[in-house]
Amino acid sequence: MRSMTLVAEMHMPKRPVSDAMNRLAQAEAAFLSAEFLAPVVRGHGVQVRIAGVRCSLRVEPAAFDGWGIFRPLSHSGARLVRAASAAERRRYLALFPAVRLVVCAVGSGQIEAVADNPADPRFELNAPVSAHLPEGVDAFDTIVARFDGGQFWFDEADARADPASAAFLRGRLADLADPGIVDRPGLGAGQRLAYAVAHARHMAAIEVDEAASATRRLNAALGHAGAALRDFSDIGDAFRVTYTVDGQRHTSVVGKDDLTVRSAGICLSGLDEQFDLNSLVGVLRERHA
Length: 289
Prior knowledge:
Shape: elongated
Number of helices: 6
Order of helices and strands: HHEEEEEHEEEEEHHEEEEH
CATH architecture of the largest domain: Beta Barrel
Distance between the termini: 104 Å
Oligomer: single chain
Strand content: 25-35%
Radius of gyration: 31 Å
Number of domains: 3
CATH class of the largest domain: Mainly Beta
């Protein structure tokens, strides 16, 4: 009796598993015989669900980017039949929940954005997100996006938003205005957050550019004199520069504008400012001799 019970327990799960496999096989067969609509980000293929299972398919042509109607070639690939119409695109997007976002930055094929209403209980958007396939979008515009469970997709510009607010924020960013002093009647929490994010990124990019420019200038000044830059730091309107001359290490402070010596790091009898970084190397070399 015990052995019969064990046999029954071993065989009982097989029927539901078999039924599930049959349903999956039927869903796969139906999928392979029909066309489907999907958004595609270039180089990332297309995501589809077959019987609730998310699958990734490469697309042909590989350079396609946008909304298309595809025919499956296999379980791993699909070919573009034609571009999707605006009406088809809207019907697809209407299947997913909408969220209003404020654009922080516009990139190639996507935007970075923050929630217009950070307190929206449906989405926990504590940081900027990417929304794909935007159309006619500029920084600080408010848009409607749709979330499919994995990605945000641009739907449309938010007709309720005040375009003057976006233009105001773009102007203030061009002036590099600090987020703490940027104000205008009607600015919402999402717009203020978007500005803060964009301003921080903009300032970081400027600092990178300035650091690269300073490195080139210091390398050129020292290199022409036969010295080598080791390191430097920004100290307001000057650079503290560490460099080597004939194998010996020195640190000097020079002005940012013309690299005039503020403090040579050696005694020049109060004549420091008569030298720039290039000529200072010659003085140091003479002292080493």
